[in-house]
Write a structure and sequence with these properties.
Helix content is 36%, strand content 21%. By secondary structure, it is α+β, with helices and mostly antiparallel strands. A 7-stranded antiparallel β-sheet has the order 1-2-3-7-6-5-4, sandwiched between helices.
C-alpha cells in the first residue's frame, strides 16, 4: 500500500534525524548499530518512548489546523518508539497524501545549557543540509527545516520535540513554506499546553 511505504520511509528519516544529534558516531558501524548505540546512550538521540504521545497531539487538532471536514478519515498510528502519526488523503485528489507526526527527543527534562548543546549539535549535523530557520513565538526556541518534507523543532521546558509535515508527492504540496510553519507552530502550541 502506497501510504504504508511512504509512512515507513518517513519514520525512518525522522528517527535517523533525531539520532544524528549524538556526537559519538563511530566510523565503520552500520546505521542499525549506530541507532542501537544512540538509543542505549544517555543522549537526546532516538525517541522518548512517551506513553502520552497521542494525547499531546490529537485527531481533533489535525482536523482543526488543516481545516478538514468530518468526512475526511484520519489514520492514526502510534509506533513503539512513541511517534504519533496522522495520515489522510486529499478528498479532491486521490494521488495526494498528507502525514503529520509528533516525536520527542529521548531523555528526561534537561537544563537550558544541555538543550542548547544538543540544539547546536543538531544544527551542525542533521539540519545543516536542510536549511534551518528560526521561528519565533513557539516554546523557548524553535526552528523550521525542510527535513522530511518540513519539520518544526521545538525546545520547551527542558524537552525537544518535532512536528513533521509531509506531503506526497512533495512537488504537489499546495501549502507554501510559511503556511507549513504556521500550521506546525499552531500544533506545537497545542502540544505545549498539554505537556
Amino acid at each position: 500500500m502506497k501510504t504504508t511505504k511512504i509512512l515507513s520511509l518517513f519514520i525512518l528519516v525522522l528517527l535517523i534525524s533525531t539520532g544524528i544529534s549524538c556526537k559519538d558516531q563511530k566510523a565503520g558501524k552500520s546505521t542499525k548499530d549506530q541507532m542501537d548505540q544512540l538509543e542505549d546512550s544517555d543522549s537526546f538521540a532516538g525517541s522518548s518512548k512517551r506513553t502520552d504521545i497521542c494525547q499531546l497531539l490529537t485527531e481533533a487538532d489535525i482536523q482543526s489546523v488543516f481545516h478538514l471536514s468530518d468526512t475526511i478519515k484520519l489514520k492514526q498510528k502510534k509506533t513503539r518508539d512513541a511517534l504519533c502519526t496522522y495520515d489522510w488523503d486529499d478528498p479532491e485528489s486521490r494521488y495526494l497524501s498528507y502525514t503529520v507526526s509528533l516525536n520527542f527527543a529521548r531523555g528526561q527534562k534537561r537544563t537550558k545549557s544541555q538543550i542548547d548543546k544538543v540544539w547546536e549539535s543538531q544544527n551542525k549535523g542533521v539540519y545543516k543540509k536542510h536549511k534551518p530557520q528560526d521561528v519565533s513565538g513557539v516554546g523557548n526556541r524553535a526552528s523550521w527545516s525542510d527535513l522530511g518534507g518540513g519539520q518544526l523543532r521545538v525546545a520547551f521546558d527542558g524537552h525537544i520535540f518535532y512536528v513533521t509535515f509531509f506531503v506526497f508527492p512533495k512537488n504537489k504540496n499546495p501549502l507554501n513554506t510559511q503556511e507549513m510553519i504556521e500550521r506546525t507552530s499552531t500544533l506545537a502550541k497545542k502540544v505545549i499546553k498539554r505537556m
